[in-house]
Amino acid sequence: MKMIAALVAILVLAGGSQADDIVEIGRQIAEFNCSECHAVGTDDESRHPEAPPFRHLSQRYPLDALEEAFAEGIYVGHPDMPTFEATPDQLAALLAYLATIQMTP
Ligand code: HEC
Question: Whose CA is nearest to atom 24 of ligand 1?
Answer without folding.
Answer: 75
